[in-house]
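Weekly modeling sync, notes
Attendees: S.R. (lead), two postdocs, one rotation student

Agenda item 3: backlog of single-chain predictions. S.R. asked that every request posted to the team notebook include the full sequence so nobody has to chase files. The rotation student volunteered to paste the first one in as an example of the format we agreed on. Action items at the bottom.

Example entry:
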Amino acid sequence: METKKNPKKDLNRQRTLFLQIGLVFALTVVLVAFEWRTYEKSEFTLASSGPVQIDEEMVQITQQEQPPEPPKAPEVTTILEIVDDDVEVEDEINVDIEARADQAAQAYVPVITEDEPEPIEEEIFTFVEEYPEFPGGDRALREFILNNIQYPEVARRSDIIGTVYVQFVVEKDGSISDVKVVRGIGGGCDEEAVRVVKSMPKWKPGKQRGQPVRVYFTLPIEFKLM
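Predicted structure, as returned to the notebook:
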């Protein structure tokens, strides 16, 4: 016997209607959820105009130390010595009041001390009529440098070559002073050039108008490897 379904009780034919109702309901719930607003309760505390109680633990009470009493001055006891009328007493300080009243006060005269004049440094010339000269001339000067110069080991290992220009002052007595390098090459060559110049004997001083003067002199010293 074949089973037949009653078309009125068939729920599948209303499936589309139920689906649309469910979608509308779900959409309504979502919209209501988004539009729903909640308000937080805020508590406000009004300050009282009466006295406020402060926690003792939060307030630190500092007691100011009173400064110590200053030490009392030692008591001074004055001893009066009674002497007879016929004994003369010598005072330590004798003041003639009448003489001071009659004399006019002396005017204050400031003591003026003369400052010692600073020594005037003699002028150092650059151009003179007669220039300083090494004893024996330029040839003797070259021989002196060649015989006394020592090539620094650092400059030798680094292949440093060049010319060191040394400036110095030839004093009026021919001595050498104020030796300095005006252009160097490094590697110990500058220090060696200064050492050789300081070891020079006295020069023949330069002259201006027949008088010996201090003169600047610049000497080139060449360093080269053979």
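Discussion: group reviewed the output briefly. DSSP finds five helices and five strands in the chain.
Action items: rotation student to repeat for the remaining queue; S.R. to check formatting next week.
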